[in-house]
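Record 1 of the preview.
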Amino acid sequence: MRLQRVRVRSGRMPWRGAWVLIGGLTSSMILTMIIVPVVYRIVDGIEERYLKWRGEKKGMKVEFGVQG
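->
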């Protein structure tokens, strides 16, 4: 991907992708700081209700397989 640079009369070189960079950083921050913790709490609540329904406590060791 090639970045376009355009000279203006003031001598500065504005970068047209600045809004893309700012938007990407903002969206990744929102994803990390808000969306991920909210989804974690939802999944954790579902797990707690499921374990309560089964009569188990969180952190109990559940073994699967054939006992013999």
